[in-house]
Write a structure and sequence with these properties.
Blueprint: H1 4-7, H2 29-38, H3 42-55, E1 58-61, E2 66-69
Antiparallel strand pairs: 1-2
């Protein structure tokens, strides 16, 4: 998909910033970044996130509980 090269450089972002509260997509920094970058609504941003995660373009760091692109942003 043509989004992958840019998504691979996504900076470090929190997908669930208000843990332990229930997850709310509207508060996700990851989904907000995708929405801003690709000018899409929350539903489409979530589909893009799920697809990129499944393809390994976006990676989760279990130690910090944050997401980043596989080529960028990781600390």
């Amino acid at each position: 998909m043509h989004l992958w090269p840019e998504l691979a450089y996504m900076p470090v972002l929190n997908h669930w910033p208000d843990r332990p509260e229930p997850f709310t997509p509207e508060r996700s920094q990851v989904l907000a970044w995708i929405q801003d970058r690709y000018h899409c609504d929350l539903h489409v941003a979530h589909k893009i996130f799920d697809s990129a995660r499944n393809k390994g373009v976006l990676v989760f760091d279990p130690e910090t509980r944050i997401w980043s692109g596989k080529k960028g942003g990781r600390r």
